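Could you help me review a protein record that somebody else here produced? This is what I was given.
***
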Amino acid sequence: MKLKPKIGLEIHLQLKTAHKMFCRCPLPSKDAAPNSVICPICLGYPGILPQLNREAIEKGIRLAQALGAKIASRIRFDRKNYFYPDLPKNYQISQKGAPLAEGGEVLVDYLSFDKKRSESFKVTLNHLHLEEDTGKMIHEGGPSAGSPQLGSGQAGRPATLIDFNRAGVPLLEIVTEPIIASAQEARLFVKELQRVARALRVSEASMEEGGLRVDANVSISRGQEAGSTKLGAKVEIKNLNSLVALKKALEYEIKRQTGLIKKGEKIIQETRGWDQKESKTYGQRTKEYSADYRYFPEPDLPEIVLSPLPSALHPLPVLPGTLRRKALKKGLRAAKVYMLEDLGRLEKFLQKTRRKGIDIDQVASSLLSPRPGKTYFKTLPSDIGEIIQQVLAENPQQVYNFKQGEKGKLNFLVAQVLKKIPSADPREIRKKIEEAID
């Protein structure tokens, strides 16, 4: 009997709009005081009426177009009923029967393990739908504990605090088909989705700040053929908030389920969480089915006609994958293509190599080097160590992700130091940060 993992992802992407999804509250900044960006609609007071955010619909359409999805001519919102402390209305306004778009496909290309070529795979989408976000729960003793803004339990007792600032923030949920074959493919797909969302300017897509969260569904196909479509029980891992957590949680869960099958034990269809400290998943509750949410059409919002599409939409920019393929077609080595992309200089490379006869390797090398003509300190400031420690302390999630193998986070940390000392040599800063982290 051959066993093969099948992974489907539900990506919750916060849309970058002026207001929340169903009220006029602005989107909260990351340093906003708890429960300071709220209103009666956010808190679900009796008699409140939702006010639809047109900008959220337009940005959702923009991303759906970029992903090759079919935009619906009419959409409808539904109530998803469930009870949880961070859901003030005891229901969430979402889309079930008539989502924003269906289908779509994403081509994901990446640098091969030997760093000599580009490889690729495709991920098929099921649908994209709009909904509102929930509030945020902060558990005493958890990752968010110790925040001076949020306080702690009285007399040292455990406490759960709720910040409703996030309640009502517009979300676009992107649901894939269960065809992703590995944890690494899942990580690469989400990373590509981040690039596309940022290129379109529809979302910051920052996992560290909660702007992109992933629920991963894992099952094991069983049969004589490796490509069997017969799936086992589906296990959902909720609220994965970094690429490292996504990859590690999936690797653990695939190993756990495979082990149970080989021992002849039954896999329970359930929802599990990810324990970052223990590096393992843990059971939370029996997996809900669609009927458990008692969906019905939102009575306070009418059906919305999207045909013809809103006139505010603009032509799509050249997407990241297209830029990479253009650079590869010019003959640039794959390793340099992805390095230029990580530095945000791939488009500039293509602009500088439009004319024939240009030495593409020389152009790429110049863009990968520190800025030409820039005068740097001959020696770093005496307090460079303190500055680097301050940056590391301000960005613990990026430091953790770097330690877990996300080498691209080093560029982010270098950029944060350069904001404080612009005339420092980036190459020297990079060395100092690596030394400090080690």
